[in-house]
Predict the 3D structure of the following.
Amino acid sequence: MEYRHLGRSGFKVPVLTLGTGTFGTAGMMKAWGDSDAREATRLVDVCLEAGLNMFDSADVYSEGRSEQVLGEAIKGRRDKVLISTKGTFRSGPGPNDVGSSRQHLLSSVDGSLRRLGTDYIDLYQLHAFDALTPVEETLGVLDEMVRAGKIRYIGCSNFSGWHLMKSLAASDSRGFTRYVAHQAYYSLVGRHYEWELMPLGLDQGVGAVVWSPLGWGRLTGKVRRGQPLPPVSRLNDAASTSMGPQVEGEYLYRVVDALDEVSKETGKSVPQVALNWLLQRPTVSTLVIGARNEEQLRQNLGAVGWNLTPAQVATLDRASAEPRTYPYWHQAFFKERNPFPTS
């Protein structure tokens, strides 16, 4: 397993992270999977055997059950794993049970520590931007928890460029701990991350922790033109699909056709090719992969240890290219001043 620095920090993470949205059985997460503690323990075993030692969760996954199951699965081997989790989304009915205020984050972190059965979190991320709480308040309490040893590194998720830059500037001016990670959506059928967040990440030393690298289940190799959706898929769940990235049908099939072409050339599966393409992109530190079972996990682990050729990358780039919105289409005309980011 390859390890990379998380942004411009000294913290090294594996290029693949296991997402634990499939752990537990509550709420809308049922559409993702329902691994109990026994199955979760087996998935953790397989990961550690392959050198994948980072596991990502959130306090809202399965209403907290995901963190609890992960805690049970790593019991007795906390020193062998890295844990990342997230807070900010609504975690209860009260007016302070949501957001990135001091009040909510203190209780959120303590709740996550309790459910995970640990006294520290390796990477704690804000699940979304809270526009109603001053960034100085949010960063101040995160900095306190880092200094107290409850959190080792901090990151954010689903921020826009100005959200992230405003936060980094506040950290720099106040001497607060800086975000070193941005957990962001990025895939072969969702390349908007490249327009602003990728250049920002390079400039400011923020590594990408990529969520849904297979395009919300669309790049598993089971979704193809003229065929019904597989019987077991989050795409069959209307509530789950409505909350995920939207992808136009013909665009998806064009990308899948290119993936099929490269898959035949490499002898690798469609999801392995899609994941490997991401691993060659600038700023990418780790991909959060999901797995309903051991077979899916082993399949995704096959995405590492090899590389697509430049020609194969170009084939996938062409198929997945999208029209840019302003001002990015305008900037693209001036490559001598705004070149595409390189690692």
User: Anything to note?
Assistant: The beta strands are 3-5, 12-14, 16-19, 54-56, 82-87, 121-126, 151-157, 179-185, 207-211, 284-289. The chain has a mean pLDDT of 93.
